[in-house]
Design brief:
The longest helix is centred in the N-terminal third of the chain and has 37 residues. The chain is elongated. It has one domain. The chain is mostly helical and about 90 residues long. Helix 1 packs parallel to helix 3 and helix 2 packs antiparallel against helix 3.
């Protein structure tokens, strides 16, 4: 166990950040799963709405430092591509 007050504070900060990042990551994954489920079911309106919510979650994860900008951009591009293919079909 740590003995210095600065180390104890650092441990507390790490715990809080870890919980926050885990919650954000969970929300993000759930929103992406909803888009994929809507695309698989073939419902274009649900897919569009879920894509908008997923886009918000992806942008938030980038701003909060949970995910890199390029990763979020790649995921959003792939989701958008699948939703557009559903709308065209």
């Amino acid at each position: 166990m740590a003995h210095h007050s600065a180390t104890l504070k650092s441990i507390r900060q790490t715990k809080v950040r870890n919980e926050r990042n885990t919650a954000l990551r969970t929300k993000l994954r759930n929103s992406v799963k909803k888009v994929i489920a809507a695309v698989d079911s073939g419902n274009a309106n649900d897919a569009k709405n879920a894509l908008l919510k997923a886009q918000i979650q992806l942008d938030k994860s980038v701003t909060k430092g949970v995910m890199k900008k390029e990763t979020a951009s790649r995921k959003l591009s792939r989701l958008n591509k699948s939703v557009k293919a559903l709308v065209k079909a």
